[in-house]
Queue: 4 jobs
Job 1
Amino acid sequence: MSEITSLYYALRAELEQKTKELDKITKELDEIGREQKSIVVKTINDNQYYYEQWRENGKLRYKSLGKVTPGGACDNEIRIMRRKELLAREEERQFLITHLQTELNKLKHWRDKESILFEYSFEVFWKDQLSARVSVGKSRVHVSRYIKHPIRQIFSDEVITRNQLNEVLKLRCFEEGRADCVAKLKALGLSEYNPLEIVKKTHGVSFNDYIWIRFPGERLTAKDVLVRD
């Protein structure tokens, strides 16, 4: 996995976390109200009273909190301080989310570009017999087939597109829609369903046949990867 892709996943995870935090802040603000209020004291008939004050539709509104006593408006004061704190945190999270979304869009552009330009190769084996050598170019995939037997070969053509290759690799992976897909990806150290990355981890091994995939630099034989004799 490239540094750009790793950074993309890290920022995406951070964006998800900040979004959850914002949702939690928004929920609490909805519960206590968003009006910025203050506590004022009014003297009526020589008696002092606490009032909660706020502006609504351009007019000042008041709510009596009772006579002034030590701590008599404490709960309201705590609520006002909490509201100010939440509003500041909400603004901060919104700024961070916007920033992260901008950076993710930039990284996605480079990640997609990197994916398109990435060239690689691999070999396909049936047991220890070479079945095909695959060279993936920028737009075309070239397949050298050494076995034409339909059970021992996963390619039917010698030139295919990258999208067609992706569909072939999907057949060597577990299904994307299965209930435990996320758990299986996590076990492989992956955060999204990518057939190539999955096959790099599993070598495309299946219980149904003896086909497996070897990437350059891997010193492997059939007995190292196959799940049945």
Job 2
Amino acid sequence: MNKIIVLIGAPGAGKGTQARLLQERLGVPQISTGDIFREMKNADTPLAKEVQTIMSAGKLISDDLTYKIVRERTAREDCRETYILDGYPRTGVQAEQLEELAREQNKEIKAILIDIPVDNLQKRMTGRRSCSVCGEIYNIYFKPPKNDNVCDFHPDTELTHRADDYEEKVKVRLATYEEMTKPLLDYYEKTNRLTKVDGTGEVEEIYKELAKIV
């Protein structure tokens, strides 16, 4: 039976990287609600216009409207078989609505958590540095540059530290993720549809585990 893969992972867990690999290598489309909302900012459809009005008023998009958007996007031909949802569902209400969509599309739901300890996530995020010239990414804990805070390929360029990656902001982002995601994990765990994959290994190792499940 074809599946709806609900991919779950904290900021810095490598969820986006893995979703892209699954799409490139297995041809399983990655449906990101963030990408859909960005596309809708310039689209000229009745649904896009509704979203644009809400966004310009600074309001939050409701669960019902988000569901409508996901339903419309996953009705396209590329989602006829298995597809990955990235960033949806985020709430208990959305999880219930997804059950309805799965029945409609005759698919089963499988949730996968890329599981990484919080202290590891903090180091991944607070340790990130990048080169403004070539875009090379380093990590002071796991992949430091050869010389302190300068790019290996552009030794005259000091590495930059993203504002979002400072410790206080990282703590807030991780706490928000924990708070929002726990009910979702409980929901799928209770129905035996949650699989945890160790996210501390190499990218290829994690990919192999995910590919087996997908």
Job 3
Amino acid sequence: MKSYHFKIAAYIILLSFSSCEGLFILDPIDPRLPKYTHAGNSTAGALINNEQWKSVVEWHLFGAPSHKPSFIRYPNDSLVITFYGTLKSEHKVSIHFSITGLEIDEFNNLTKLKGIKIPLNGTTGTASLSTYSESCQEVSGGIGQFYARDITVRESGSMIFSGTFGFVIEDEDCGTIEVSYGRFDYVVSQSHFNIYPG
């Protein structure tokens, strides 16, 4: 009987602390990156100043993955999309995209992004990084492009949300930060979409 309870306790601890990075299918051209897919593989990747950055999905015993992308709608018609991940050096870095003018005020309206190349120019779209380094906690003003290549609504109401991105930030204190060959492929649901109350 003691052995049975020990096995259950060990299994619960394992579930609590195990992590899953999604299905990382290597890009045959550059294996530091996930291959671009539209399958809901729960993964994202990019190069930040030529260092590998990839998403991390942490699984918890009683909850959904905590590091899927988040979508926050702000009252001034801006939607902020955030991808969470780490550099190869294990430093945590979040990548943010702020998009305006598409009136995405509920989860189902995310389909408005499908097939649209959004210029990151400080007007229609803005890119930023959080906690890039100890001396560069927040950097913004990236010039580039965010492209939601494909969005498929599934029978469950969730969506497969995939695309590509890249941008360059010139910062007076942090220098040039280049985010290149970015790609993402997630299953997202209503629980990932929030409206800022302000």
Job 4
Amino acid sequence: MSIKLLLLDVDGTMTDGKITYTNSGEEIKSFCVKDGLAIVSWMRLGGYVAIVTGRESQIVTKRAKELQINYLYQGVKDKRAVVEEILKELDIGWESVAAIGDDLNDLPMLLRARKSYVPANANEYVKQKVDTILKASGGNGAVREMIEDLLQMSGRIEEFRSVWEVG
């Protein structure tokens, strides 16, 4: 399997799906550090990552910048159309894509991706439409589990594990 691009939804996938507002109106989200490490490792191994989300948030912008994610698209109404543009730029097809999402608006990318994943706490209908239901919930290591599964299938899991070793 030659997956080159990971498509990530945010709310319910990279986070637990909760949106918290402070009294001053600031939005709060929590991201899993283990997911972040896996995303950075994936990119160090030559892969690409795109966040494609229906909401807009400065917090997501900050997280994407912190992880040096290749592509960030927020406020997206048509996820499939956005992904088509990324594929054109990278000169790859849907057969080189793995996607993770948790709800109905993620189906356009989940149904086209070569390998599709949902966190354990995803929408029940969406769970029926994907290749793999992960053990981890969104915001609690689901992205990490997806990346490790892809690398295990491609025989690159040891390479992934050794990315951070200093010798």
